[in-house]
Amino acid sequence: MILQSMTGFARHAVAYSGGKKDGEGDARIVWEVRSVNGKGLDVRFRLPPGFEGIEPQVRATLSRHFSRGNFQAVLTVERSAAQSDVAINEAYLANVMAAGERLRSQYGLAPASVDGILALRGVLDQPQEAEDEQMRGQLEAAIVKALDRALAALGDARRTEGGAIGAILAGQVDTIAALAARARSDPSRGVEAIRARLAAQIALLLDAASGLDETRLYMEAAFLATKADIQEELDRLDTHVASARKLISEGGPIGRKLDFLSQEFNREANTLCSKSNAASITSIGLELKAVVDQFREQVQNLE
Length: 303
Known about the structure:
Oligomer: single chain
Low-confidence stretches: none
Shape: elongated
């Protein structure tokens, strides 16, 4: 499976004919869908008036395509000239105007503007309200089908970006592995280097205070040296590197798993820095933390 980014945009437009003669019922269906990063699946639809009833159906369609991301889907239904005329709901308008006049005289409110009145929902009747049930069902099915194609195009865009992110992540994992190898072979971890550091530290203590037990000092110093050993951290880094490479190669919705691994990488890098008793190891640990931060930033873009 291919990695999939959570960021993308797609637009799909299709001409629709309800099967009537002389162009009656013709419309143009346009979906625009965009997605950005998100912890879960969050979908917001903007549907034209009168189409609110299809939201559960289009929401289920999107859920079949994607499992994670913040989505905004905008539907536009452009009617043909024959179908785009509007009519004023005279009875409803009369009630609105009467209520407005009553409020104006009672509270001294300013008269309502024409555009404000026409913007009230229900004042204008649109032709789709007169469609029979069969025509309406056909139009809604066409809308859902158009959305399915828009989501397929969005999936292609997200996979293209996901592939590019996967290549970046693979390179960062290689860098983490190389830094761990450098730390493992660093001269400061050699037996002679450790012995020299212990001897120098004990010599300083003996010079600073007479009467100290040299044997006991060596035992304590050896114990501290053992605690400062970073072998376990390096072994865990190797394990996490292998897990990350496996996930990236398998693909699919692995964003959360890689995010967990990035936290593990960061934990080992922090421990390596805190245990370090050599400037060279500290430098490697800081480089490691920088790469892990970059790795985690990229992971946030994956589904």
